[in-house]
Amino acid sequence: MGSRPSEARSRLLGTASRIFYAEGLHSVPVDRIITEADTTRATFYRHFPSKEDLVISYLGAADRALRDRFAATLASSESAEDAVRGITADIAADIRRKDFRGCAFLNAAAEYSDPAHPVHRTVLEHREWFLDAVADLLGQIGDGPAKPAARHLVMLRDGAMVAGCLADAEAVCTTFVDGVEGLLWSRSVPGALRS
Question: Which of 67, 100, 146, 181 has its CA 20 to 30 A from that of 92?
Fold first, then answer.
């Protein structure tokens, strides 16, 4: 049984998560997070030895939240197709949010482009989980290899996340949902063209 995180740590992480998502990772100084979280520098460094540790914790919290939402969708779905549609609807709901600023993981990868950097590796671990989870679902629909279809769905999602910041969210969501429906159709029709 793990111990609960301290109130100060939770406040620091919550404050950082809000600001990082809205404004980016590199542009936000530690002093601002300390001030807005109403804590001290010593408290910050007791919980996060570096800003990089805080960024990784922010991404870890985002990862856990998305995994929990994914699991809840699976639990409430009657079939793999329903689950894929539910996950798609959840992504579309995110894109429609007023404070939507894209995917936290894609944004982090853009700021930490070195593949060897711990933040970049954290992003890749999350993406590998999502790809594998989607491949597992798509493998339950129709026949043929599921991994190419899963990569297709992840690319549709990535495109929707980027376009959702640049274009009309409703149009982006409609295009995204239609693309996933086409993918589901291709999985369920024997002999449909597959990559």
Answer: 146
Q: Could you tell me the pLDDT band of residue 1, with boundaries at 50, 70 and 90? A: very low
Residues 59 and 123 sit within 8 Å (Cβ to Cβ): yes
| 132 shares a domain with 42 | no
73-117 pLDDT, tens per residue?
999 999 999 999 999 999 999 999 999 999 999 999 999 999 999
> Is it the case that residue 11 has pLDDT exceeding 60?
yes
Rounded CA gap, 36 and 30, in Å? Answer: 10
| 63 and 42 housed in the same domain | no
Q: Which residue in 25, 172, 13, 165 sits closest to 109, CA to CA?
A: 25
Q: Which range among 1-10, 23-32, 53-62, 118-127 shows the weakest confidence by mean pLDDT?
A: 1-10
Do residues 111 and 160 share a domain? yes
Q: Which CATH number covers residue 35?
A: 1.10.10.60
Residue type, 3: S
Domain shared by 15 and 111, yes or no: no
Q: How far apart are CA 63 and CA 127, in angstroms?
A: 9
Answer yes or no: do 85 and 3 share one domain: no
